[in-house]
Amino acid sequence: MTETTTKTRARPAAVILTPSAEQRIADLMRQAPEGAIGVKLSTPRRGCSGLAYSVDYVTEEAKFDEKIETPGGVFYIDGASVLYLVGSTMDWVEDDFTAGFVFNNPNAKGSCGCGESFTV
After folding, report:
1. What is the mean pLDDT of each run of 10 residues along the chain (120 residues)?
2. How far is residue 24's CA from residue 15's CA, in Å, rounded to a whole number?
3. 3 state DSSP class of 26
């Protein structure tokens, strides 16, 4: 009887973080409230198009969250949101008037005029 071996391969992260986004996560973790273990991205239902991006501190790891180790801290993706985010790039952009995370999401089929929400 021959034994079969299952080989697993590392899968790419659902979301690619730019160096600027990784730096922002590091900055957030330096000023994080006590008990925060990382920063978490989720896609709650909100806005005129249906889903929105939400980035918040997280104090405990949820079973199905995707975990991405970055140089400045742990970045989590809500397990229920991964499907909507696979293949996305997350960047941190600052200019004279605004600063925020910007998402290039190939799964988004449309967005609202203000850019707050998206559809898949």
Report:
1. 63 86 96 96 76 92 92 93 90 91 81 55
2. 15
3. helix
